[in-house]
Amino acid sequence: MQGLRKLESEIEADILSNMIRLARAAAANSHAPFSHFHVGASVLDDRGRIYTGCNVENIAFGLSMCAERNAAAAAVCGGARRLRAIAVYTAGESLTPPCGACRQVLSDFGPKMEVHLINHEGEHIIYPLDLLLPTGATAEVG
Ligand code: THU
């Protein structure tokens, strides 16, 4: 996967560092008593607004929700329809690409959005969403 990364971001550096800061703050609020895997995400819309989400687990495991989809839902609730980028932060060593379900949900709001993966060590890689979800359904909303 490393070989497939996109090297350049179209997001301004100060906005990107804000997104990363907010994704990290969201991870600190993650509710993960079962996996202990804390994930935070922030999404940037085409108006320059940033929305966040964290993973929220439930004793009925299937009801747990990923950080990425919670961030997308917060964005939609705030009036966003087109997303330029998502930053996904995990507190540990791993870089955490969105699961398949999150890729499909994100795709409705920006099939080519930048997907930034950041870990605690400050490692940072970028994939275009359409590389992570080839031939996904691409209906744009709004
Ligand atoms: N998780 C996310 O929030 N995002 C991902 O991209 C991968 C997994 C969450 C779901 C669950 O709460 C925990 O991480 C372990 O899978």
Number of strands: 5
Write down the overall mean pLDDT: 93
What portion of residues belong to β-strands? 15-25%
Query: How many helices in DSSP terms?
Result: 4
Tell me the CATH topology.
Cytidine Deaminase, domain 2
Order of helices and strands: HEEHEHEEH
- What is the 3D form? globular
- What class, by secondary structure content? alpha+beta
Poorly predicted residue ranges:
none
Tally of discrete structural domains:
1
N- to C-terminal distance: 32 Å
CATH structural architecture: 3-Layer(aba) Sandwich
The share of residues in helices is 25-40%
Gyration radius (Cα, Å) is 14 Å
The unique ligands bound to this protein are:
tetrahydrodeoxyuridine
Query: Order of strands side by side in the largest beta sheet?
Result: 2-1-3-4-5
> What is the level 1 CATH name?
Alpha Beta
- According to CATH, the homologous superfamily is Cytidine Deaminase, domain 2
Biggest sheet statistics:
5 strands, mixed
Please characterize this protein's 3D structure:
A 5-stranded mixed sheet has the order 2-1-3-4-5. The protein has one domain (13-132): 3-Layer(aba) Sandwich (Cytidine Deaminase, domain 2). The protein is built from 4 helices and 5 strands; from the N terminus they run H-E-E-H-E-H-E-E-H. Helices cover 27% and strands 22% of the residues. It starts with 12 loop residues before the first helix and ends in a 10-residue tail after the last helix. The chain is globular and about 35 Å long. With 142 residues, the protein is of the alpha+beta class. Tetrahydrodeoxyuridine (THU) is lined by residues 32, 35, 37, 39, 55, 57, 64, 66-68, 88, 96, 98-99.
